[in-house]
Fold:
Amino acid sequence: MPYETGGRADKFGNRYEGRWVVKQLLRLIKEEISSIILEGVGKEEEGIDLWIRNNDESKICSQCKGRNASKEYWTIGDLGAKGIFQKAKKQLDSSDKINYQFVSAVNCMMLNDITNRARNSNGNPRDFYEYQIKNSTEVHKEYRKICEYLGLDHNSVQDNEQAFHYLKRMYVIHYSDDLETKTTLKETIKYLFIGNAETIYNLLLNYPIENDLLGKEISSYMIINFLESQPDILFRQLHKDERIMPRIEYLNTEFDSAFVKINNSLIHRQESEKCYKELLNGNSVIIHGKAGSGKSGCVIELRNRLKEKNIVHLALRLDRRVPEYSSNNYGDQLGLSASPVFCIDAVSKDKEAVLILDQLDAIRWTNNHSSSALEVCKEMIAEVNNINKERDRKITLVFICRTFDFQNENGIKQLFSKMNTNNKEDTWKEIIMSDLDNENVKEVVGETYNNLSTKLRTLLKTPSNLYIWSNLEEKRKSNTYISSSDLIKQWWTQLSINCEIMGVSINYLNELKDNIKSN
Structure:
């Protein structure tokens, strides 16, 4: 959709360019680039809105065009009419270390495709023209137009070689002009700074103009020094925080300590292998199953695999570490320097990382403000999506929940509402816990397994039932149990009798049970 006509179009155009500048300033702060110049003077000013100096001393000149009048896309003819090719050629001719970027909120697929073909060629200009241009009538037609705008003759071998070298150094950047773009920028600000994200965004937006820096080189030091001079703003520098990894290890150990094995051994679950493979493919996972189906055991096995492969991960039980207010506040609750997502990102740069959140369904039972806790979970999902836009190896999430709550609790359902869409940012895979295999049960029960009734064998395929069975005295292991309730009653009776023998009153035991239920 085009901008409104008149003065508003100029303002929207300036807003678009401003957001692109803020993005580059944030890249500068992260030291992904060396410096920028906004609105250079002299020869560098012509047709260029922003100069970027890379860390290897090469340079990128950016030209921003938020819209193409009333059109939803750019044609080669449109670009030629705006003088884009002539301006790009002028800059590319000035140095072999300069690349050109055309940045727009509307697509320019033909130029994008042709420049990508040049970069993905075998490096031979003649092969590029013969096999990647001439083999398509439409592409060949548009290529001839590009040559014309560049002042080149497509029939000339020498000019085709020159066109090839220009195209390799031209890039089309599709940068959206919507609220989501600003939201993404503010998420990055939250990652980098402690302070009000909207305030910092506006400071960055106005920094070059308010500080008379148009046409002057802006460095990382300058912008960080400026922001830190402002009240209530601090630079996080999480990548230099040596306290994060020890705290993550402590929290992971705490997570493990809450799990009780059956007969002191961990039963292998095929679901943990499925989950691991999905995580390696960059997919986040929701593991769900009925109560007592062994979800937490599956996660312990998954965590062991992640440790074995040296994959950074943080595992949290949401019933014991309940999120409140915001992701940043949750990090404070956990003893971390920032949001859990930001912290695992900081210690896992360029490698896979996993955030595991168990007992999601317990939030509504353990917290009077469960909606707030779910909002924090939603915020952490958004943080992962934003960070992953700039990561080659993704941060993935694993949520664990009871099937009933996953399917029926509205707050939980909304967390994964995009599971069945084609949104690449929200790639969730669903893994459902199955019953234990007969062999798993037989290994725990022992030789008496073959004497059990079919009903009891089926009952013991649920890990929680098998755990209770393994803790019953031999004299109580009978074939009469037909439900989980029967097993629980028998176990409670055994506990009550043993407590009395040890001098512990039944009243104390009942109080303990009530406290466990209420907490």
Observations:
- Residues 274 and 430 are 10 Å apart (CA to CA).
- Residues 240-432 form a domain with the Rossmann fold fold (CATH 3.40.50.300).
- The radius of gyration is 30 Å.
